[in-house]
Write a structure and sequence with these properties.
The complex is a heterodimer.
Chain A: H1 2-23, H2 25-60, H3 65-90, H4 94-126
Chain B: H1 3-25, H2 29-61
Helix pairs in contact in B: 1-2
Classes of the chains: A mainly alpha, B mainly alpha.
Chain lengths: 128, 64
C-alpha cells in the first residue's frame, strides 16, 4: 500500500517542481530535497525492522558484531552519499556530485580495511 | 510527516514569485529582490531542519 502513497507523492512533487523551476529554481531544488527526505522517512520503519533482523541473526549465529556494524556504516555512507550526489546532479552540478562519490568511495574503502585484514589472516591461518 | 511540508514550501515559492512579479511591474526592483531573498531564507530554514532530522535518523540507525 505504501508504494502507492510514495509514487503519488513523488509525482505531485515533480509537477510542482516543474511549475516552480521557471520562476524560482532555487526553491524547486529544495522541494526535491524535501521530497527525498519525506520518502526516506516513509520507508524508515521497514528499514529499521530489516536492520534489527540482521543484527538478531548475526548475534544468533555468533558472528562478530563489529563486522555487521561496519557493514551497516558502509550502507549508511553509501545511502547518504548517493542522496547528496543525486541532488547535486539534479541541480546541474555533476562535478560536485562526482566529488561526493569519490569521497564516499574513499571512506568506504578505509572502513573496509579491518575486514580485509581479518580475512587475509584467516586465509593465511588456513593455508598449510 | 513531512508531506504537508512539501506543499508549504511550494506555496511559499509560488507566493514569492508572484510577489516578485508584482513588485517588478510596480517599479520596485530592490524590494522584489528582498522578498525573493526572504522567501529563500524561510524555505532554507525549513529544509535545513528536515535535513538535520534525516542525518540524525541515519546516525541512529546505521550507528555512525
Amino acid at each position: 500500500m505504501d508504494i502507492l502513497q510514495i509514487v503519488g507523492l513523488c509525482l505531485v512533487a515533480t509537477v510542482i517542481i516543474i511549475v516552480l523551476k521557471s520562476y524560482r529554481p532555487e526553491i524547486a531544488i529544495q522541494i526535491s530535497i524535501v521530497t527525498g527526505i519525506v520518502v526516506f522517512f516513509l520507508v524508515v520503519a521497514k528499514l529499521t525492522a530489516v536492520i534489527d533482523l540482521l543484527k538478531e541473526l548475526t548475534s544468533r549465529a555468533n558472528i562478530d558484531m563489529s563486522y555487521v556494524n561496519i557493514l551497516l556504516k558502509i550502507i549508511g555512507i553509501a545511502y547518504i552519499a548517493e542522496f547528496g550526489a543525486e541532488v547535486c546532479r539534479d541541480a546541474g552540478e555533476t562535478s560536485i556530485a562526482s566529488k561526493i562519490e569519490l569521497a564516499a568511495k574513499v571512506i568506504i574503502v578505509v572502513l573496509a580495511v579491518p575486514i580485509m585484514t581479518s580475512l587475509l589472516e584467516l586465509i593465511i591461518r588456513i593455508m598449510p | 510527516m513531512g508531506i504537508d511540508l512539501i506543499f508549504k514550501i511550494a506555496a511559499i515559492g509560488i507566493l514569492v514569485s508572484v510577489l516578485n512579479q508584482v513588485l517588478i511591474r510596480s517599479g520596485r526592483e530592490e524590494q522584489a529582490m528582498m522578498t525573493t531573498l526572504a522567501g529563500l531564507v524561510v524555505v532554507l530554514l525549513m529544509v535545513v531542519k528536515e535535513i538535520v532530522s534525516l542525518f540524525n535518523t541515519i546516525k541512529a540507525m546505521f550507528n555512525f
